[in-house]
What we know:
The protein is mainly alpha-helical. The protein is 54% helix and 6% strand.
Amino acid sequence: GDHDPGHSVITLTLIALLSLLGYTIFRRSNSQKDAFRRDPTAPNVKHLKTLKTARGTKLLVSGWWGMARKINYTGDWLLGLSWCLYCGFGSIIP
C-alpha cells in the first residue's frame, strides 16, 4: 500500500533541520568529551571547568556538558525523533 505521509516541503525542511540539530549536538558534545579525555590541557578544551567526583575522576561542567549532564543523548533523541517524524502519523507501518 501507499504509506506516503504527504509532508509539505516546509515540514520536510523542518524535520531535516531537526535532524541536523540532533546530529550537531551529538557529534560536537562527544567530540568535546573525547578531546578532553585525550588531553585535558589541549588549547580547545583547557578552558573547560570540571568537578572532581567521589571516584576521583573529572566531570565536565561547562561547554556542551555544562548544558546537561548527558547532552549527547539529547542529540541522539532529536535524531531518532526526526527519523520517526519522516514517517508521519497516518499508519503504524512506515
